[in-house]
Amino acid sequence: MGQIEVQNLVCGGEAGGAFESILFSSTHAFAFDQDQGRLRTAQYRYGNPGIRIGRVRSSGHRISLTEKQNVTFLMPRNGALSICIAGRNVVIPGGGSGLLRPNTRTTHVRAPEAGLFDGLVLMLPEDGLRQIAVDAGIESALCRDLLPAKAATTQRLASYLDFLIQDLALQDGGVMPPRTAASLDALLRDLLADWLADVTEAAATSAVDLLRVRRAEEIFMDRADEVISIAEVARELGLSLRSLQAAFHAVMGIGPKARLTHIRLERARASLLRAEPEEQVTAIALDCGFTHLSRFAEAYFRTYGERPSETLARKRRISDRPARYSA
């Protein structure tokens, strides 16, 4: 049986506890990036009751959630995802992918400068994915969250999910023949095994790079508010600047300077969103480690689609009026 569930949300400000996503176990907090936001979530099921395929379109939002049972594949097509898990921030760019085990996390769904965020979600029980990995002899691939995969592997999986969504939408809840459902399920499992195999191959060659990146990120987190250079961090880790840069590009697809800037931007945005009435953008930027204010404003706009002053003004408008809720 093909099943489709659609959830639409249009409102301003924070939706708080009134909003519960149809995709995840529980939603703790939700807020649109703009005063008037839009979110459309569609969830599709087919013959395998444990597998759910989702498509999310959003003007941009933040959501704090807990997923208790399912692993989650995230594949942003337009826009990007910034995910915080236990204090660690990771970005999944458009065209990329990541896998998350059951956990509690905060996700910033970032829309592109023009248009809506558009992304695919695939969810299945953790035991089911582990069995796929065991059958393929690659169980070691499931050792951590946010596993990276090559663009070609991600594209094959995303294209198949697009096909399934279109096929299920055409059926509009009609009965799917068991043999058809079994064939669709078998191909999806093969693609998931390919994705995990790709991850395992990459992990085998990047264990040292991953350790280097994690150690550098610890320094970034501890000293993001200081004036530090990447060369200084490399020396502290006993590495050459080139080795540290290569590690970041291999693991995250960006350089260490870009990663440090992103950490500072996330802190600046969090500070702007909880700023007291007397606080100003300049002081917040300086406190977060930015020394060139125009570059800070440019980077902030590229990342969040609004100027720091606009974030601060929006926060003050929301604080000055009763919260509005919509489900």
TrEMBL record:
GO terms for molecular function: DNA-binding transcription factor activity; sequence-specific DNA binding. The keyword Transcription regulation applies. It comes from Gemmobacter aquaticus. This is AraC family transcriptional regulator. Residues 214-314 form the HTH araC/xylS-type domain. Keywords: DNA-binding, Transcription, Transcription regulation. SUPFAM superfamilies: Homeodomain-like.
